[in-house]
Amino acid sequence: MFKRLGNLIRGFFGLFIGGLEKKNPEALLEVEKENLRSTISKFNKGLATHAGLCERLMAQVKRLEKEETELRAKTAANLKAGNKKLAGQYALRLQAVRTELEENRAQAKEAEGTYKELLTARDVSVKEARAKIEEISRGINDMKVQKAMAELNEMASGMVNEIGGSGDTLNRLHEMVEGERSEAKGRARVARDSIDSTEVYKMAAEQDAIEELALADFAAAEGLEMEGGSGGASGGEGSEETEDEGGSKSMGPGGMSESA
Q: Can you count the helices (H) and strands (E) in the chain?
């Protein structure tokens, strides 16, 4: 039971950590970058140690090569001088040095090959890791851009829906206003057609006549002459006799006519 409970707790922690990783991919990427730096640092330390081994082997090879040259010269010199005993000792030492030299050369060659392989492996691994990190970084940036675009599109879609709803309301309001306006215009037309215009015209004509009489009286009282003839109050004074072609005489306006 405790094992099952432990598995359940680990599962919950795993889900929790997985959720945090999904919410913070940049933080996880930074951790991986730091891990890569640490790994490269450790690898470089080991590579440096191996490079030191290669250098020691190369130095030992050079020392043995120098010793080989000296022993060969001493052996030859003592052999020519007749010192066979000493020449034999140098010759024996020369054989041992040559054997050790061959072994060291083989070890140095192998160590140098291993160093180059490790160096190539490090460069390839680092290059691949950096390429993955750059790809993930681009993916994270693209994810951010896509999320931002999605949010903008969702906002735009919501705005379109809201504007569409407002547009329907405005359309209904426009129809209501136009309906009321048309109804008001119809009522005004009906009211205008219901007015008796004959009475209005008669009242206007009477008003004009009263104004003309008042003006004629004023002109007669002031001794002024009005254009277009005098008014009705002084109509007798302004009459003239006219004779037509038949010999009859007639008075001016308002006068009497006399036959010949």
A: 4, 3
Average pLDDT, the chain: 75
Quick one: tokens of 161?
């829906």
Q: Please, which residues have CB within 8 angstroms of residue 234's CB and are 6 or more apart in sequence?
A: 216, 220
The alpha carbon dihedral of 89, 94, 97, 103 has a sign of: negative
Question: Within 10 Å of residue 81's Cβ, how many Cβ atoms?
Answer: 10
Do 211 and 192 form a contact (C-beta atoms < 8 A)? Answer: no
pTM of the model: 0.45
C-alpha span between 23 and 247 (Å, rounded): 127
Sheet holding 257-258, edge to edge: 242-243, 249-250, 257-258
Q: What residues contact 57, with CB distance under 8 A and at least 6 apart?
A: 104, 107, 108, 111
Answer whether 213's CB lies under 8 Å from 231's CB.
yes
**What ranges make up the beta strands (E) of the chain?**
242-243, 249-250, 257-258
Q: State the chain's maximal CA–CA distance in angstroms.
A: 205
- Domain ranges in the chain are 2-139
Q: Is 250 helix (H, G, I), strand (E, B) or coil?
A: strand
**Residue position matching structure tokens 């030191």:** 52
Residue whose C-alpha is closest to residue 228's, from 214, 217, 216: 216
Torsion angle of C-alpha atoms 21, 27, 28, 34, degrees rounded to 10:
-160
- Whether the CB-CB separation of 90 and 71 falls below 8 Å is answered with yes
pLDDT digits (tens, 9 = 90+) for 35-81: 888 888 888 888 899 889 889 999 999 999 999 999 999 999 988 88
Task: Supply 248's token pair.
Answer: 């009859």
